[in-house]
């Protein structure tokens, strides 16, 4: 009982610290990418937080898998460095005795990883796609922000508003640049502007006290028109339906379709909890630290193992999506290979001498 309680406590504390660190790295990477898109005008600034949340939920199974793998690896490696393993081995506790406490710790996380991979991640992908489509379907007036040049959805107009809307809904110092189909440039500048909706629900941009310039760039042919009131009807866009991507489809829909692309995506979702389980068990033999080889040698091997494992799953997922490999073979082969490597690693640590050094 002392052995199990000590391990469970250390696993939990290490996992909490690792999860916070990995989640912070994930949020930072998503934030940097979205801020770059927002600076380029591809994503509205007010949509960054929502997209960060959807992206974090989609990557949560991967973060939890890495958390349990690193937490077990660091905890048992510390036991090797502090000679606690020597004490446990001298007390008659073999290396296989760590399997039960590790399973007791990782099984709840494996269930969470499976639920996140099968249900939470596709839901967040679908909601993110719907949210992006809703943003793209907004009319040009909803894209305008004070002090920022905004391009219209069709890349035909550029808007600039110096002063934001007050309580009366009016904006100040409005600039609109538009290129017509025949190559003419239209520039409109007005002192004030506001939105108006008529009885039929049509929206109009009303500009007051301004000028309109029509002409071709680089030629003296242009016209100047002054106006007291200028109205332009805003085209209402229909909300586009989100694309039917395999990553955004529910798991039940993938099973119902059962085509090659759906089976490839389903393989990745079903394999996520299996990957978490096998990596958690593999951390036990990988945690061995040889003082002569340095403290970070096992960490480098663990990183290499994780990269090989994840890349192998991605390769088989791609092969299943292309129809080169069946679903059952693509699901079993990489995990069976890792399971065989896991048995070999346990045998190597438990044997007095490795089998390749034995003499007949």
Give an overview of the whole structure.
There is one protein chain. The protein has 360 residues and is of the alpha+beta class. The protein has 9 helices and 6 strands, in the order αααααββββββαααα. The chain has a 6-stranded antiparallel beta sheet, with no helix packed on it. α1 runs antiparallel to α2, α1 (2-39) crosses α3 and α1 packs parallel to α5.
Write a concise keyword list for the protein shown above.
360 residues; alpha+beta; six-stranded antiparallel β-sheet; 6 strands; elongated
Give the topology:
Blueprint: H1 2-39, H2 48-58, H3 60-81, H4 84-90, H5 99-136, E1 150-151, E2 157-163, E3 171-179, E4 185-197, E5 203-215, E6 222-234, H6 251-257, H7 260-286, H8 297-321, H9 327-350
Antiparallel strand pairs: 1-2, 2-3, 3-4, 4-5, 5-6
- Structural class, by secondary structure, is alpha+beta
Helix content: 55-70%
Q: What is the CA-CA span between the terminal residues? A: 42 Å
| Topology as a string of helices (H) and strands (E) | HHHHHEEEEEEHHHH
User: What integer value in Å does the Rg equal?
Assistant: 30 Å
Strand order of the largest sheet: 1-2-3-4-5-6
Large-scale geometry: elongated
Low-confidence stretches: none
- Summarize the biggest pleated sheet: 6 strands, antiparallel
Q: Return the average pLDDT rounded to an integer.
A: 82
* Number of alpha- plus pi-helical segments: 9
Tell me the strand percentage band: 15-25%
List how many beta strands DSSP finds.
6
């Amino acid at each position: 009982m002392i052995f199990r309680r000590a391990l469970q406590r250390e696993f939990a504390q290490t996992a909490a610290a690792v999860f916070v660190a990995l989640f912070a790295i994930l949020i930072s990477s998503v934030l940097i990418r979205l801020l770059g898109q927002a600076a380029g005008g591809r994503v509205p600034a007010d949509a960054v937080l929502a997209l960060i949340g959807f992206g974090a939920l989609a990557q949560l199974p991967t973060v939890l898998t890495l958390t349990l793998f690193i937490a077990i690896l660091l905890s048992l490696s510390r036991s090797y460095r502090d000679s606690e393993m020597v004490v446990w081995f001298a007390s008659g506790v073999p290396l296989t005795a760590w399997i039960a406490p590790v399973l007791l710790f990782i099984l709840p996380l494996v269930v969470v990883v499976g639920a996140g991979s099968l249900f939470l991640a596709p839901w967040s992908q679908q909601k993110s796609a719907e949210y992006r489509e809703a943003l793209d379907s907004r009319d040009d007036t909803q894209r305008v922000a004070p002090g920022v040049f905004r391009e219209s959805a069709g890349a035909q107009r550029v808007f600039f508003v110096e002063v934001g809307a007050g309580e009366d809904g009016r904006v100040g110092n409005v600039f609109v640049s538009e290129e017509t189909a025949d190559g003419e440039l239209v520039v409109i500048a007005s002192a004030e502007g506001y939105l108006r909706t008529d009885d039929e629900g049509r929206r109009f941009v009303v500009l007051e006290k301004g000028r309109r310039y029509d002409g071709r760039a680089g030629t003296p042919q242009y016209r100047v028109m002054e106006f007291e009131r200028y109205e332009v009807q805003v085209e209402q866009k229909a909300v586009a339906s989100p694309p039917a991507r395999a990553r955004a489809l529910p798991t039940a829909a993938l099973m119902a379709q059962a085509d090659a692309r759906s089976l490839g995506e389903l393989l990745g979702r079903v394999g996520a909890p299996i990957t978490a389980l096998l990596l958690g068990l593999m951390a036990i033999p990988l945690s061995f630290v040889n003082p002569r080889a340095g403290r970070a040698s096992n960490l480098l091997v663990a990183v290499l193992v994780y990269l090989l494992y994840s890349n192998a799953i991605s390769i088989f997922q791609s092969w299943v999506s292309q129809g080169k490999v069946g679903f059952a073979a693509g699901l079993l082969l990489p995990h069976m290979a890792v399971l065989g490597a896991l048995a070999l690693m346990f045998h190597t640590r438990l044997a007095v001498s490795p089998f390749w050094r034995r003499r007949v």
